[in-house]
Amino acid sequence: MPLNTSRWREQKMNDSTVGSRNVAFIGLGVMGFPMAGHLAKAGHKVTVYNRTRERAEKWAIEHTGCIAESPAAAAEGAELIFACVGADDDLRQILYGDGGALAGMSKGAIFIDHTTDSAVVAREVDGAAGKRNLGFLDAPVSGGQAGAENGVLTVMVGGNDESFAAAEPVMQCYARNVTHMGAAGNGQLTKMVNQLCIAGVVQGLAEGLNFAQRAGLDGERVLDVISKGAAQSWQMENRGSTMLKGEFEFGFAADWMRKDLGLCFEEGKKNGALLPMAMLVDQFYAHVQQRGGGRWDTSSLIQILQKM
Asked: Are 191 and 179 spatial neighbours (Cβ–Cβ below 8 Å)?
């Protein structure tokens, strides 16, 4: 954890005037597990649901909260229902039907989707929630597992002003920056921009470090000097050293990045945006998957260059 993070978190919690809220969290993966934990640590009354109950039981051992048997049961009595699942169909599965979260939500409750999914499903769910007098926010996050664990995520939010105003103070429990981007779907569109930019940065870093190694340079010294100049990036600071060491068994998986880039390509077809660099990098990630690296961190792009 960065030296100032714990002090920043403590001050933020001391300054909070939100009070205890009844909340639910659906989906306790590498991101949702710590995010729900931050809500509990902040004093909120948390009910969790996870498709694999063992994961929910593990969360309950580490944190104070209740386990629900279905998304609907988790949503009952909750003012805010958070979710972080896999993709569009996973979101629909936990939302719709008799056992879905929408069936259990009370009038005026707000569903906050932290999944990275499509703007299409965000607008769909916004419409379904509105018909039930429920609020909805699409709120994908950036910062990875470390950001979730340290409570310093960046959250990009789409939805109406009223829902954002009600949910934003609670999202601050696990975020350093929560920004309202406009109407439903705009959070997801902003996350797509984020992923497109990351793809280019990681590929550039991979090529640069591979070049340094082949030129006989000390890779760590290269990182030390160029990270002080215009080439500096989050990826360089957090992934440069592990890329040089060939360590990829952690972080944001290549499988997930390909899923996210696929969302970008679908949206690009609709709005006319050209994405040639992202399409090329996507094919490099396909090669990573073919080598059995689907769960490797996105920085594994360098491995393709090293093996050529």
From this structure: no
